[in-house]
Design a protein that fits this description.
This protein is about 45% helix and about 20% strand. Helix 2 crosses helix 3 and helix 2 packs across helix 4. Strands 3, 4, 5, 6, 7, 8, 9, 10 and 11 form a nine-stranded mixed beta sheet that branches. It folds into two domains: about 80 residues, Orthogonal Bundle (Arc Repressor Mutant, subunit A), CATH 1.10.10; about 210 residues, D-Maltodextrin-Binding Protein, domain 2 (3-Layer(aba) Sandwich), CATH 3.40.190. By secondary structure, it is α/β, with parallel strands linked by helices. The two termini are about 35 Å apart. Belongs to the LysR transcriptional regulatory family. GO terms for molecular function: DNA binding; DNA-binding transcription factor activity. InterPro entries: HTH-type_LysR_regulators, LysR_HTH_N, LysR_subst-bd, WH-like_DNA-bd_sf, WH_DNA-bd_sf. Keywords: DNA-binding, Transcription, Transcription regulation.
């Protein structure tokens, strides 16, 4: 890693916070109040920050101040650095109980996390670690990882990216595979045998939100059959809720195969066979490379990888 230029080495953490506070408030006066200094002092600090970076980071207008496009790009990196510094301080304050911030998609929480933690607790020296677990949708998890709010995540790849995926400061490895399937109540008219696409399109559907990863897969699948995607009678982000409703009211839904298999017997649902095969999506353990030096992160990664296909 190259050394920092001398003009950047003179900056203080408070100087870097200026960009964050300006972005939030749009007012140098409010920034001054927040930092408990005078507005002229803030103006001088902004000038010193721009001199250090050799570019304009803040622009002034009739409605106050705002970051330039370059200022916004610098801010994204600075925020990540501030969060990394806070985590480093927390680690130094309590080195005997390292803290990991892990994010999981719902399906990863059910399928992969319990077994990985079972392996982790079986490893010597990891009895005292602390974990903050965030369960959310895949796009949200990737955004939080990139912003430095999480150390690692376990979920599907973002968007349609299944190969040639690169993000600065983030590494990943495949720890599982998941196939999306269509599910209906065993009393449904489509549960009697193999269903064609036209029949499926005519059913009442419980669908994931259009912003989810599963919905574009469904739309693509129907498009290959020359059909528009089905309309959602109910929109639900919870696979478990979708399965439970489908089992009671005779509707059709799209869920991960593992979730359907887990609930098949108790809720009397059936995976609907079709003429088309869903492609499998990769589940990955992705982590910030700055977290790799933490032994608990490296061990947790190994625990997830141990269950990979």
């Amino acid at each position: 890693m190259p050394d920092l230029p001398a003009r950047l080495q003179k900056l203080r953490v408070r100087d870097l916070l200026l960009l964050e506070y300006i972005s939030e408030s749009g007012s140098l006066q409010r920034v001054a109040e927040r930092l408990h200094i005078t507005q002229p002092a803030v103006t001088m600090a902004v000038q010193a920050l721009e001199d250090a970076f050799g570019a304009a980071l803040v622009q002034r207008g009739r409605r106050g101040v705002a970051l330039t496009r370059l200022g916004e790009a610098v801010l994204r990196r600075v925020v990540v650095g501030r969060k990394e510094l806070a985590e480093a301080y927390a680690l130094a304050s309590n080195p005997e109980a390292p803290h990991i911030r892990l994010g999981c998609s719902p399906i990863a929480s059910l399928r992969l996390l319990p077994k990985a933690l079972e392996r982790l607790f079986g490893e010597a020296g990891h009895d005292e670690f602390r974990m903050s677990l965030t369960e959310s949708a895949v796009p949200v998890l990737w955004d939080m990882l990139e912003k430095g709010d999480l150390d690692a995540i376990v979920c599907a790849m973002p968007g349609a990216a299944q190969m040639d995926f690169t993000r600065p400061g983030i590494a990943l490895e495949t720890v599982g595979l998941e196939r999306m399937v269509i599910v209906a109540s065993r009393r449904s008219v489509v549960a009697a045998g193999r269903a064609d696409m036209a029949t499926l399109a005519a059913q009442r559907w419980i669908l994931p939100p259009k912003g989810s990863l599963a919905y574009p897969m469904l739309a693509e699948w129907f498009a290959q059959a020359g059909l528009p995607p089905p309309l959602a009678t109910i929109t639900s982000a919870s696979f478990q809720t979708s399965i439970a409703i489908a089992s009671k009211v005779g509707m059709v839904t799209l869920v991960p195969e593992s979730a359907a298999l887990d609930m098949a017997d108790t809720l009397e649902i059936e995976i609907i066979e079709t003429d088309s095969e869903w492609r499998q999506a990769s589940l990955v353990f992705a982590y910030r490379t700055t977290s790799e030096c933490q032994p608990v992160v490296a061990t947790l990664r190994a625990c997830f990888s141990a269950g990979a296909p």
